[in-house]
Amino acid sequence: MPSIKTTPGKLAVILLVDDDPGDQELTRRALEEDVLRVDLRIVSDGEEALDYLNRRGRYAAPGAAPLPDLILLDLNMPRMNGREVLQSLKGSPYLCRIPVVILTTSQQEADILTTYNLGCNSYVQKPVDIERFVKVIREMGNYWFEVVTLPRCTALPA
To answer: How much helix, strand and coil, in percent to the nearest 5, is found in the chain?
Structure first.
């Protein structure tokens, strides 16, 4: 099974699940200015994330929702929070291998323990300083797409 690292010319797909437009834009800028070739997809809450990942509603059309290679997931969002999304992802035989990085402002020990128990791959606190935030996003991209070898996730059944 080829890995993302060894697939030449492929754009790495990152799904950002975050309701904060400012954080969405900072993440976009950090990834655009980096040397990684990334296709950043953004959704604003947990329900939309699950629609995207399960190709429902506006994401049902072919090509509308490429399976992400990495998910950046905020915890505190309206409608469905990040914990609920994470639990759903890790319970799915089709989506469970997608690495999920919790990217949140929460410093609560309970949030850290809960999300690791639910299967997150990393927990990163969003830096409040813009330059530090950009640096963290770039380092994450480098780690997940240049250092780590990730398996290909299987596509959802038709």
So the answer is: 40, 15, 45
Total Cβ atoms within 10 A of residue 131: 8
Q: Name the residue with higher pLDDT: 131 or 42.
A: 42
pLDDT (0 to 100) of residue 29: 85
What is the identity of the amino acid at 83? R
Place of tokens 């399960």: 54
Taking Cα atoms as reference points, which of 86, 67, 90 lies closest to residue 75?
A: 86
CA distance 90 to 75: 15
Read off the pLDDT of each residue in 124-142 and give the average, rounded to a whole number. 88
Taking only the tens place, the pLDDT of each residue in 87-118 is: 999 999 989 999 999 999 889 999 999 999 99
SS3 117: helix
Q: Model pTM greater than 0.85?
A: yes
Cβ atoms of 74 and 106 within 8 Å: the answer is no
Give the separation between CA 127 and CA 125, rounded to whole angstroms.
6
Distance CA 11, CA 36 (A): 8
Q: Quick one: CA torsion of 9, 54, 27, 1, rounded to 10 degrees?
A: -30
Instruction: Count the neighbouring beta carbons within 10 Å of the beta carbon of residue 119.
Output: 13
